[in-house]
Design a protein that fits this description.
By secondary structure, this protein is of the alpha/beta class. It is built from ten helices and six strands. The chain has helices at residues 5-20, 22-35, 63-66, 77-89, 105-111, 113-116, 130-134, 139-156, 180-199, 228-244; strands at 47-49, 55-61, 93-99, 123-127, 161-164, 205-207. Strands 1-3-2-4-5-6 form a six-stranded mixed sheet, with helices on both faces. It starts with a helix and ends in a 9-residue tail after the last helix.
Length: 253
C-alpha cells in the first residue's frame, strides 16, 4: 500500500507539537504523577488455565498487558481473552502475561521478549504504545521496535497469530488536563499509524481498530488503567474483531 503524504505530515507534526509544548506538558505530567494513585501490578504468577490441547496465549507488553488496575491477573486482559477464546473455539486456553508497568516497546525487546517466547505460543496479544506516546518517541523508532517484536515472534513461532491492540484513546481520559490530553491523543494516533503499517508486512499479524466509546465502569480507581469490567470489554472487542477478520479459524481444531 502506498503511503499518502497527509498521514506522514501528521506523524511528524504530532511529535513537533509535543516537543514545542514541553514547557507546559512536563509540569502537567509531574502534577498528575503526584495526584493519580500508583496502582501495583497484580500478584504473580501471571499465568493460568490449561486442559487438553489448549490454545497457548501470550499477552505481552505494558501495565495493561500484566493487569494493572485489578487485584488478580485472571480478571485482567489475559483472563478475559481466555474466556472469550474458549467460548468461541470450544478449546481450553493456557495463558501467560509478560512485560511490566511502564514498559515501552524497546523495554519489552530488551527485558522480556526472549523469555516470553520461550514456551509454546499459538496467539500473542500485544499491548504497547501508551508509554511510547508519553515519552514522545518517534514514529520511526516505534515502528522499528514493533517490527522487531514481530520478526522475533514469528522466528520462534512461525504458526502463531499476533494481534496488537489499538493504542489508548487518550482523548477519552478525563483525568488528563489540556493541552496534555490532546497532545497525547495526537501523538498516540501517529504511533498507531506506524504500527499498523508495520503489521501489514506480516500475513499472520493484525491490529484491532480503536475501541468503541468506553463504558462508565471502564476505568480502575486511578482513572487511567482498565477495571475488571474494562478488561472484559477490551477482550471481547479484540476477540470479536479477530474472528470477524477470519483470524479465529487458525485457533480452531
Amino acid at each position: 500500500m502506498t503511503s499518502s503524504p497527509r498521514p506522514l505530515r501528521g506523524r511528524r507534526l504530532s511529535r513537533a507539537v509535543a516537543l514545542a509544548l514541553a514547557p507546559i506538558l512536563l509540569p502537567q505530567t509531574v502534577r498528575l504523577r503526584r495526584v493519580v494513585p500508583l496502582l501495583p501490578e497484580p500478584p504473580r504468577p501471571w499465568e493460568g488455565g490449561g486442559g487438553t490441547d489448549p490454545i497457548h496465549l501470550l499477552v505481552l507488553g505494558d501495565s495493561m498487558a500484566v493487569g494493572v488496575g485489578v487485584d488478580d491477573a485472571a480478571v485482567a486482559l489475559a483472563g478475559h481473552l481466555s474466556a472469550q477464546l474458549t467460548e468461541l473455539t470450544g478449546r481450553p486456553v493456557r495463558w501467560r502475561s509478560r512485560g511490566r508497568n511502564g514498559a515501552t516497546a524497546r523495554d519489552v525487546i530488551r527485558d522480556h521478549l526472549d523469555e516470553a517466547l520461550n514456551a509454546p505460543t499459538d496467539l500473542v496479544v500485544i499491548s504497547l504504545g501508551a508509554n511510547d506516546s508519553m515519552q514522545v518517541r518517534s514514529h520511526r523508532a516505534f515502528r522499528r521496535d514493533i517490527k522487531r517484536i514481530l520478526r522475533v515472534t514469528f522466528a520462534a513461532h512461525p504458526d502463531a497469530v499476533v494481534l496488537m491492540s489499538a493504542l489508548p484513546a487518550f482523548h477519552r481520559f478525563g483525568l488528563l488536563p489540556e493541552p496534555l490530553r490532546t497532545t497525547l491523543a495526537l501523538h498516540s494516533q501517529s504511533l498507531e499509524v506506524s504500527a499498523r503499517r508495520a503489521l501489514e508486512r506480516f500475513p499472520r499479524a493484525h491490529m484491532t481498530p480503536p475501541l468503541p466509546p468506553y463504558a462508565d465502569d471502564h476505568f480502575a480507581t486511578d482513572d487511567f488503567h482498565p477495571s475488571a469490567s474494562g478488561y472484559r470489554e477490551w477482550a471481547e472487542f479484540i476477540v470479536a474483531d479477530a474472528f470477524q477478520h477470519g483470524i479465529g479459524a487458525d485457533l480452531q481444531r
